[in-house]
Write a structure and sequence with these properties.
Length: 61
C-alpha cells in the first residue's frame, strides 16, 4: 500500500502510544529514571517533562 492511500496517524493516538510506552518503560525499570532514559534513548529532563505532561504517577503493584 502506498503512503497516499493510508490514513494519517491520529494525533491523539500518537500521544496515547507515547504515554503507554513511557509508562511501560518506567514500570519495567521500577521507576528508575536513569535506566528508563537509557531504554527509551531520551534525556532525563525530557523524561521528567513527559512524566509531568502525561501526569504519570508511581503506583505500587
Amino acid at each position: 500500500m502506498t503512503r497516499k492511500n493510508m490514513a494519517p496517524p491520529s494525533h491523539q493516538g500518537l500521544k496515547d502510544s507515547e504515554k503507554e510506552s513511557i509508562q511501560d518503560a518506567l514500570e519495567q525499570h521500577r521507576w528508575n529514571i536513569t535506566e528508563t532514559t537509557r531504554n527509551l534513548g531520551i534525556a532525563r529532563n525530557t523524561l521528567h517533562r513527559k512524566i509531568k505532561k502525561y501526569n504519570l504517577r508511581f503506583t505500587e503493584a
